[in-house]
Structure formats: C-alpha cells, structure tokens
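Notes from the 1:1 (GR / supervisor)

We went over the backlog. Supervisor wanted to see one worked example end to end before approving the batch request, so GR pasted a single chain during the call. The sequence is below; no edits were made to it. Supervisor asked that the structure be written out right there so they could see what the output format looks like.
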Amino acid sequence: MEDNELLKVRLEKIAALKAAGVDLYPNDIKPDNTTAEIFNSFGSADGEALARLTEKFSIAGRLMAIRNFGKAAFIKLQDRKGQIQSYIAKDNLGDDAYFIFKKLDIGDIIYISGKLFRTKTNELTIEADNLRLVSKAIRPLPEKWHGLTDIETRYRQRHLDLITNPKVKEIFYKRSRIIQLLRKFMDEHDFLEVETPMMQPRAGGAMARPFKTHHNALDMDFYLRIAPELYLKRLITGGLERVYEVNRNFRNEGVSTFHNPEFTMLEFYWTYTTFEDLMFYTENLIAFIATDIFGGLKFNYQGTEIDLTTPWRRVSVKEALVEMAGMPPASLENQAQALAFARRAGCETKETDSLGKILMAIFDELVEKKLIQPTFVTHYPVDVSPLSRRSVTNINFTDRFELYIYGKEIANAFSELNDPVDQRGRFLQQLSQREGGDDEAHEMDEDYIRTLEYAMPPTAGEGIGIDRLVMLFTDSASIRDVILFPLLRTRQE
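Structure output shown during the call:
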C-alpha cells in the first residue's frame, strides 16, 4: 500500500512536469566534471581559495538526499565516482528551474552547475545556478534510500544494489582492476591474448557436466565450453608458444558460495616450461596483483590474515592425505583400504570408483578446508588428471598442482600430456567411466589426438579462477557478491 501511494504521488508530479512542457528524458546533457575530479582538485581548498575561483562546475548524477529549508535546500548527488553536496536556492535558480526542483524525487537523475564553496560545517558544495531534469524515476528506491539489504533482491536487481550500496560498486571497480592487472602481467611476459570458441562440438578440457544446445542451420548439437584448454593447446601446436585467454566457462553443476555455473577464468599455456615453473610464476602473478591492491602481501579475508609472502608451501596429495587426513600410508596404494577409510570419513564413494578418485574424495572432505595459507598441492592421480603428463618418479601420478587459499581451489595447472598414444589411452579410460555412469568423465576427442600427432612441444598450462581471486581480494564471502548477475532460479511472479 505504501508503494502504491508513493507511485501515485510520483505520477502526479510527472503529469505536472509534462503539463509545464518539461522534457522528462532529454538527451543533450553533457556534464563537464565528476565528483572525483572536483574532490581531487579542490578537496583540500579552503573557503577563501574557493571564493577566488571563477570557474563553474557541472555534475550529472542520481539524487540521493534532500534537506529542505523553505526556499532553499541541500541535496546529495551521486555519479559513478561518488557523492557531492549541492546548495539549491530559488533566488539562484530562477522560477523555472526551481519549479522542476520542487517536483524532484529521490532517485531522479539531474544536472546541476555552479561555483564551489564551503558550508559552515566545512563541506565542499556546489552552489547551483542551473538545474535540469535528466531522467525521471517513476519507482522509488528501496529501503527509504538507506541501502538495499535483502540478499535475494540485491542479486536479482543489481542496478538497485549498485545505486544504494557504495561498497558493492567498489567491488566491481576492484574486479575490473584485477583483470587489468592479470592482462598486464601476461602481456609483459610476452603472452598473446586469444579467443577460442564458446560453442564446441564436444565438451573437453575438464571433467565436468556441460550445458547442451542445438544449432539449427547445421542441425548439430553443441556444448557451451567447460574449458578452452584443448583449443588453446591447438594454438600451442600451431606455434603460438605463449597464449592466454580471459574466458567464460559454463559447467552444469550446483550453485554454492564458491560455485556459479557461469564463471570467469584466466587460462594460459607456455611452451618449454613445467608445472614447477608455473608455481613460481603463479606466486609472482598473484603477489603482483596483491601489491597493487593492498600495497603489500598481507590482507584479511573473512577475519583471517592471509600471507602471500613467497615461497608458498608445497605438499603432494599423498603427503597431505597422511598429514592432514590421517590416512595410513599403506591405504594410499590399496583401493579397498582407501574405500573403507573414505566410508568412515563420510565421503560419497562407490565400490567401482578408482583408487585415485577415492583418494580425491577423501582429500575434498578432510584436507581442503585446512589449507588456509597459500599452498600448492602437487602430484594428482592419473585417473583424475586425463590431460596431465605422468610423473617420471611415479607413473600413477601426474606433474600437476592445484593452488589453495582459505580452503578453496584458486588455480589448477600441470605439465601437459603431449604423447598422443598415452592421450588416446587416457580418453579410452575416461570413456569407460562415462559408460559406467560418470557423466563428468572426459569425452573421446579424435581431432585433438590428431593435433598431438603433429607434435606439440613440451608445455605447461594453468587456469586461475578469477571470480574466486576477486572474492579473496574484496573480502567477499560469496561468489555471487563478485558476479554482477549470478545465476538465480526464475522467480514466479
């Protein structure tokens, strides 16, 4: 009922403005300044210095507050850079502009121009000598303009979230900065940024369930990519020896505070390097970003201090299972013993699961959450790493690492398998698992094997989860807080 009354009042104001010939949505507004420019140039100037200025300033922004004093008022305007106060007086504006002002509502977008001065409370203020309506808001802002707090509404109506919660806007400015820094670091190391298909004839490059679509003209099924890996390695084979892509991936999986079915990654491939080289590179890359964002290598995430000072800890999967999960060393090599341990730990496992899959189920349940400070977990089982090079010291494990910070995987990397015979055997093993009901197992990809048969140089590759990295660097508890439009169930109106 309250919303209906507010809407009625606004519609009455709109009718009065139209009757007076006021354009509610003009398209000739060109402000000369932003709030940041004004504060950067004059934020420390005193009243006397401002009084000597002959320059006028103009701002366009959303009206966020009004304090009326009869024939004068103070208002707050918000543009993309922040807020600034303006003093509104009928004597300064004239009758026509003041008539418009009296019909304004919180949430309207307006333009003002005038000189700067300081109020008795020393607040930098624009004394408006001109005011125009830029865009009339029919609906009122939520929560009486004191900030949108309902989580569901914030995600569904991100425009309102950005208007009413300045810290949300800061997160997405910081996200943009982080991606800029990632690109800068890659470019400075002679990597070439490329683009690969989002629609692929088969889902490859990761063990995940894909989204399926259909191309009408070709009468073919396609999959939204779960990873760009196989296409990027085709480019490596073609002679582009250092490539990267800031890419959108799609995985048909559940939604949680750390999972969104559509997500962003940095994925890169580098010839004549190994997974060990990439550990040093990853340390330097993430430290480079942290230094720019925080001015150092220590920051707080969810009340815990994270220290990125290098070198970061390195521990193998087997070592972690013994040390942090309490597995007897002998059970690491025995499927039945590992399965029994997993069952006691409450892991979801099947009798037919391979030893490697059981070990990783135990790892996910008992070890991940303990990896708070940055840790490289190395040497994953072959049967859960179908695209990774085998370790020369133990052929049942691979030259692979995952980076964990605050108990969550941030990056995944390995020395790439470039032996086409071994790759075919791995795909056949994955195909057997698919036939056994594992719809996340990798598909057979004859075209990719054919690519390897032309000889791919020794290469290491890595994927870094940008959304999770942004979560860390913005102290965000949920991945939905760092994605502008997270996936949500359609609401029934």
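Supervisor's comment: The two ends are 18 Å apart (CA to CA).
Batch request approved.
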